[in-house]
Write the structure tokens for this entry.
Amino acid sequence: MTSSTPALAMSPDESHLLDQTTTHERVLLAQAVFEKGSDDWEAVGRLLRGHALLKARTDEWFTAQHLARTFGVLLQHVGVEPATAFPPQSPEVRKIAHKYYMDRVHELYQAMEACQDQFRIMYSEIQELKDGKLDWRLTHPERALPPSPVRGQQALP
């Protein structure tokens, strides 16, 4: 499996299952399969069942059948044949888990950038408020734009 390996064809049901699985769930499932292998789904389910990030999942999500099906879809997503069996500590599963881990890191990085953008906007608004540049909003809230500095002070309606 390489980062450029294309995803294998998926049925609509498999695509839906992939869409219903969050990135952190993908990471946790791949890590659990790395620990227990892909032949002991009951052990994978027991390992995942108590995880704090999976508390919202129902008991059905932790069944051997569901976990095997979900992991099969994750394998297809990274271009690996789902029928492949992996022993515990398999280097291939480690690569798959790392891929989903990096996807989660990228998600978190994007969320941090969005928060930084919001902070910058709020900070600039605070500075404008301190500098009096937004006083017109208090005195004339019905106006959409501030008075034009080019035309000087104009009579407000």
